[in-house]
């Protein structure tokens, strides 16, 4: 049992809803239900009953509530007091390479303009590396495009994204009106490095369709991948955000999976026991307000049939 369990218990008791508590703490409802179940198992009592569409606190829950409020209040006071001792508010942001190469620079600039009192550090790496840094408390919060596998981390979908298959003018597929998944068999590809969420999603697609490709080049740099598409006649599966300029200039041809197998989200991630600071709350609020320019670009696409 941790202070996190008690914080969620108080939130459910005060809002009367698991979903409202989840929204308050920026997590998914199943995570709240799991923590309440763990708390009930720890103490061997039932804390809430669902009657019809309403959640009712039990007698055991009523007895726990004032004690839990007192403990969480003292903990929050301690966190806020220690946070106030810093001469400068700090926020350590992590981002995966696609996000760091597309929306993060604009987002950080907007955050700095609205929060000049906050000192920002940003670290860019792949999903596996960013996840480990969050677990090790080397970062406060992150935006990642891959699947977060650590049970220590809370991951919430925030922004839409999708991958595209890209080839340059010198590639034989450039003039084709459509492609089939089997057309990719034994083709040369430039790929992201292992640990990349982009690579993992594409490799799952290849496995489902029993397609084997040749990895001719492996980069962790979007500009290097773009050059490999244009100059080395490699294909690549990459976020649509990273090829917007090249696509508008007709330097590359983009194919989109008709089965929507490459649709994904950018996820907000932080440690489940992390105290959500004011700087983190401001980060999340601003992220919710930025959907006007964080949506994927609308570009001409050709179909990749399954």
TrEMBL record:
Top-level taxon of the source organism: Bacteria
A Pfam family annotated for this chain is HTH_1
Q: Does the keyword Transcription regulation apply?
A: yes
Classification via Gene3D superfamilies? 3.40.190.290, Winged helix-like DNA-binding domain superfamily/Winged helix DNA-binding domain
Q: Does the keyword field hold Glycoprotein?
A: no
**InterPro entries according to UniProt:** LysR_HTH_N, LysR_subst-bd, WH-like_DNA-bd_sf, WH_DNA-bd_sf
UniProtKB keywords = DNA-binding, Transcription, Transcription regulation
Q: Where is the HTH lysR-type domain?
A: 1-58
Gene Ontology MF, one? DNA-binding transcription factor activity
UniProt-listed PANTHER family = HTH-TYPE TRANSCRIPTIONAL REGULATOR (PTHR30126), LYSR FAMILY TRANSCRIPTIONAL REGULATOR (PTHR30126:SF94)
Spell out the family assignment given in the record's similarity comment. Belongs to the LysR transcriptional regulatory family.
What's the protein called, per UniProt? LysR family transcriptional regulator
Organism of origin is Bianquea renquensis
